[in-house]
Amino acid sequence: MSNNDILKTLRYSFDFNDFEMINLFNEGGMEVNRELVSNWLKNEEDPAYQKIIDKELAAFLNGLIILKRGKKDENPPVAEKSLNNNMILRKLKIALSMKDTDMLEVFELRKFRISKHELSAFFRKPDQHQYRECKDQILRNFLMGLQLKLRG
Question: Is the pTM of this model over 0.85?
Answer without folding.
Answer: yes
